[in-house]
Every structure is written in C-alpha cells, then in structure tokens.
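Module 6 notes. Inverse folding takes a fixed backbone as the condition and produces residue identities as the prediction. Think of it as a translation problem where the source language is geometry and the target language is the twenty amino acids. Below is one complete input and output pair. Work through it position by position during the lab.
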C-alpha cells in the first residue's frame, strides 16, 4: 500500500500520544508522523519524529510543516487529546481531495463531551467564510503542493495567525471542500454553552491575537480585490426633513421580564433635541403587550406598533420602525433584554453622528447578568473598528458591537433583511461599503446575559444555520466590494 500522508500533531510534554499515533499508522497509508512541541516530549512513540515548535499556531510552525514533508498530502491534527478515525476515513480524505482538486478537505465529526458521543456537523466554506474562528474540526487534510505554494507567498510573520494565514492563502488558488460525512471522533474539553463562547473573540486579553488576524485578513482582501481604501461618501444630514431628531427602536416578542427596564432607560434620557421610542411588538403573548400599553398611555414619547403580519423577524420589525413616518433622523438600537447605561447615552450617540460625519455609530457595551452585575469578559469596545481599516476588518469579525445607530435615510434605502439573526451585521456591512462608521469607546450600554437570551444555548444545527447565513452575507458583501473596485 502506497504511503502518501505526512501527519503533524501537537503534543504536551508529559502526554502520551500513542493512541493517536497508532490510529494513523494502522491505516497503512501514513508515511511519517511528526510531533510538534516547544520541549522535546518524554515519550516519542516508534516511527515518529520530533520538531521543535515554540508556538503551534505560528507561521513558523506552518513553514516547518512545509519543509518537513515529501508526501503527497499533509494531515494536521490541531488538538492534543486522543483522536479516533473511522474505518478507511484517511482513504476517504485522500480520495475526495483528488476528486475535487481541493487544496484542503475537512469533514463532519463526532465529539465526546462529558463521556457522551455527539454528532458535530460543520458547514461549507464559501468566499465569505473569512472568520478566523471558522470551524473546520480538528483534522485538516491538505494537498502538500497547496501548503508549499501558500508558504512561498507568506509576507508576514505571525505568532497566533499562522493557520488562518495559511488557509486564506490556499483559498486564493484552491477550493476548500467539506466532506459531509462523520470521519473521526475527537474529545471536546470546552463544554460551555454557545452563549458563553460567543464573546471570546472580543475578550480584551485576546487583543494581540485579533490584531494579527486583522493583518492577515487585510492582506487577503488586497490580494483578492475586496479591500476598500478609507475613502467614504459624504453624508448630508439635512437631505430629508424630520419632526424628530432621534428614535430609539426596540423590536420585542415575549420579554415580560426585561421590557420594562428597557423602556425606563429611554424615558430618563436627557437630550437637547426631540426624541421618541418606537417599540415594534411582534405579537407578544406573555404580558409584554400590556406593559408597553401601560407606558404608552402615560407617555406620548412611546410609539407602539403591532405589525399586521406575523411573518416578521427582528429585521422586519426594524424596517417597520424606520419606514414609519414618526421615525426620527437617527434610528438608535436597544434590544428588549438590555438598557442604556445612563441618561446621557442618546445625546452622546447623536452628537457623534455630527462630530464624525458618519452614517452609522457603534458604541461600547458592558456585559452584565440579569441583576446588572458585570460579568466576564467585561467591557467590549470593538477596537477593531478603526477609521482606516474598520470596514475591511468587519468582514472577519462576527458582530459590530452595541449600541448601534443609523442615519435613517441610509437605512431606508438599504433596507434591513427580514431575519432574526445577523440582520444588524448585514446592515452594517452594507453601510460600511460606502460610508464611514463612527465609534464611541466609552461604555453606553448594558448587555444583559441570561438564560432567556435567544443565543444563550443554541444547538449545533442552529449555530450552523446562523454561521452559514453570516458567511453568506460576507460573500455577498465581498462580491459587491470586488465589483465596486473593478468599476472605479
């Protein structure tokens, strides 16, 4: 049997990796196995070689992989826990990478969580799959030629973004192909709920990692024609007449526990201008409607809209608000779970539009629990939204920050997608294609995390649907930006 694969595995100093090594050798088609670590392991299984590797995720590691393989294919396992292959799965990887002429193939997999075996399907890669945390699983099966060609084009050295840089470079020449089959089993040690993982990428302690990822992505956009220079269309705030300067928009359905706090945080706002609160109540059935009615009767600042149809997502509720004649010049977001940090928030947001001459403003928020006590990761400022590169980096990150506010004529022209996940992201990307996005780096908003959040504990099927939609949004936006550059 022809040996056609070189395998690369990260190892810990005192950890026995023989289970994974034996799995690979028993296939009969593995030529070499390389163990990678900063210190030489105490145990080096037979038929293995050790490569010094200071940081497994660096470009230095990728270069070592390219230099040390003469095999047709490269298999990289990115975890240190034991790995179990399905029967003939390596042959399947090799067969499909040939059939598809892909540079990388990856597959669905099983994971063991707390002793239980769970199916973990992944999603198809598309040109907009630019998130650095795109889940390929822990087994990456590359065409060696693709890796070597990509490494030859490396222009930067990274400590953390090596694998991200590699797959971006490979994707410029080859396809990245998902095999919709469960070809291996890995052990999952991170058993947190989806909502607890959601903000890992904006945790301040990961700032240096994010800077590297941004550099890698920006280079990729320049290579592929999707990079936009910091040149923006002019905003004229007097192009339409508005009776109200600002409208706070709250789409809501069945938030009886939190809607009253949200309303109160608006009614205390102190401003130099006229504002109102537009609540789009998407047919609540839990008492939310009664609470809104109570406040609307007491205060003429509140506009209570109940849509005629029942087919609206959060985005459709936003469209109902901004297309209403009572909407102000600026439409400012507040989720029904959350609240503004003090009575000056709305004034600061509106001032920022005029000061920064932008079509959208993104603020800074503080993570809190249901009792409004700060929780990790604390203050989220989305510093990746820089004036010179924010709209390019926006294609890599998975969210825009909060609170978000929009110049109403622009949002009316673009329209908000009628979905309940990613609608704000789609809107922000479309706006940033032509207009500057302003930033406020002081906390304005309390983002309340609790078991009732829509993304608190999302199953893998829904997570995949959400991520596929956001990747699709990015694909559309990337194609639009490439076209914009071509038509200049």
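Target side of the pair, the amino acids:
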């Amino acid at each position: 049997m022809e040996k056609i694969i070189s395998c690369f595995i990260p190892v810990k100093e005192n950890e026995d990796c023989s289970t994974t090594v034996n799995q690979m050798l028993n296939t009969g088609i593995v030529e070499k196995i390389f163990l990678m670590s900063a210190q030489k392991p105490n145990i080096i299984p037979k038929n293995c070689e050790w490569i010094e590797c200071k940081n497994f995720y660096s470009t230095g590691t990728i270069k070592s992989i390219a230099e040390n393989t003469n095999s047709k294919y490269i298999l990289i396992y990115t975890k240190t826990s034991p790995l179990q292959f399905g029967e003939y799965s390596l042959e399947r990887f090799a067969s499909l990478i040939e059939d598809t002429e892909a540079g990388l193939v990856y597959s669905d997999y099983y994971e063991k969580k707390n002793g239980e075996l769970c199916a973990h399907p992944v999603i198809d890669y598309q040109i907009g799959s630019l998130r650095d945390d795109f889940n390929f699983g822990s087994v990456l099966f590359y065409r060696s030629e693709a890796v070597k060609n990509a490494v030859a084009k490396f222009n930067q050295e990274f400590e953390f973004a090596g694998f991200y840089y590699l797959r971006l470079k490979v994707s410029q020449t080859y396809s990245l192909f998902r095999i919709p089959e469960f070809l291996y089993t890995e052990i999952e040690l991170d058993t947190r709920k989806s909502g607890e993982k959601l903000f890992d990428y904006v945790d301040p302690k990961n700032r240096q990692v994010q800077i590297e990822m941004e550099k890698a992505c920006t280079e990729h956009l320049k290579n592929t024609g999707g990079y936009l220079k910091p040149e923006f269309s002019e905003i004229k705030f007097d192009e339409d007449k508005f009776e109200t300067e600002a409208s706070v928009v709250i789409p809501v359905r069945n938030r009886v526990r939190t809607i009253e706090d949200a309303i109160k945080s608006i009614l205390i706002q102190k401003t130099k201008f006229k504002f109102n609160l537009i609540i789009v109540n998407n047919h609540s059935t839990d008492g939310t409607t009664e609470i809104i009615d109570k406040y609307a009767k007491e205060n003429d600042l509140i506009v209570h809209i109940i849509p005629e149809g029942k087919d609206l997502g959060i985005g459709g509720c936003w469209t109902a608000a901004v297309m209403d004649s009572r909407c102000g010049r600026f439409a400012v977001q507040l989720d029904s779970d959350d609240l503004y940090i003090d009575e000056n928030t709305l004034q600061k947001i509106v001032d920022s539009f005029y000061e920064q001459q932008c079509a959208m403003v993104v603020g800074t928020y503080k993570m809190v629990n249901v009792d409004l006590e700060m929780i990790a990761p604390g203050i989220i400022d989305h510093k990746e939204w820089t004036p010179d590169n924010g709209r390019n980096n926006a294609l890599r990150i998975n969210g825009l920050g909060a609170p978000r506010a929009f110049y109403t004529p622009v949002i009316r022209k673009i329209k908000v997608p009628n979905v309940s996940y990613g609608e704000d992201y789609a809107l922000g990307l479309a706006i940033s294609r032509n207009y500057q996005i302003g930033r406020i780096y002081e906390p304005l908003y309390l983002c309340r995390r609790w078991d009732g959040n829509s993304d608190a504990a999302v199953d893998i099927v829904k997570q995949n649907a959400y991520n596929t939609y956001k990747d699709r949004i990015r694909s559309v936006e990337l194609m639009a930006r490439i076209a914009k550059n071509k038509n200049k």
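Reference fact for the lab report: The chain has a mean pLDDT of 93.
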